[in-house]
Design brief:
With 184 residues, the protein is of the alpha/beta class. It has eight helices and five strands. It binds adenosine-5'-triphosphate (ATP) and magnesium ion. The site of adenosine-5'-triphosphate has 20 residues, from helix 2 and helix 3.
């Protein structure tokens, strides 16, 4: 069904992509909370939660691609009902993100561009240390590629911007594009 067949509400898909530790989940949770406070229907789909729910999901190029497309498809369904879908997945491949963009109507790609050395210093899950030790393989930024978005709607480097300021920027973008009312 097309969105117009459901209702007139205009949802969006806010797709946070970036390295592990770049701040995707932190920023996505924050913006989801702020959208809820505006009275909007919101769903946050986080990569870690999805992988916990579907433990067979691996880290090969094919599996990462399917993971992103699966989440993209779910997002596109929710979006049709006027839901603001906020996703936080590394989603390292341009081609997968392009496929998701094509599935959605209001796709907003947000590149969390925090540099690798900052992400590695933060290492909130100890994954960089384990990747450097060789305990885990196919780790994005260390032993697996990250293809940075060529033309994202927004770029946020959390090494030089607070989470609160980043949230302000995302909300300002949504207001400017007419997704949420102005004058919050
Ligand atoms: N300005 C900021 N914005 C977001 N996170 C920040 C900022 N400054 C410091 N941090 C910290 O950086 C870390 C980012 O971790 P987070 O789990 O959000 O990353 P992630 O991109 O979701 O990683 P993963 O892909 O492994 O899930 C957190 O510990 C957070 O507190
Ligand atoms: Mg995360």
């Amino acid at each position: 069904m097309k969105r117009s067949e459901h209702n007139k509400a205009r949802g969006a898909v806010l797709w946070f992509t970036g390295l592990s530790g770049s701040g995707k989940s932190t920023l996505a949770s924050d913006i989801a909370r702020r959208l809820v406070e505006l009275g909007l229907p919101v769903e946050h789909l986080d990569g870690d939660q999805l992988r916990a729910m579907f433990p067979g999901t691996g880290f090969s190029r094919e599996e990462r691609d399917s993971h992103a497309r699966r989440v993209g498809f779910l997002s596109s369904l929710l979006e049709k009902y006027g839901v603001f879908v906020v996703t936080s997945l590394i989603s390292p491949y341009s081609e997968s993100r392009r496929a998701v963009r094509d599935m959605c109507t209001g796709f907003i790609e947000i590149h969390v561009s925090t540099p690798l050395d900052v992400c590695e210093k933060r290492d909130p899950k100890g994954l960089y240390r384990r990747a450097r030790n060789g305990e885990i393989t196919q780790f994005t930024g260390v032993t697996d590629p990250y293809e940075a978005p060529a033309d994202p709607e927004l770029t946020i480097d959390t090494s030089s911007m607070s989470a609160e300021r980043a949230g302000d920027m995302v909300l300002a973008y949504l207001a400017e594009k007419g997704f949420v009312p102005n004058g919050r």
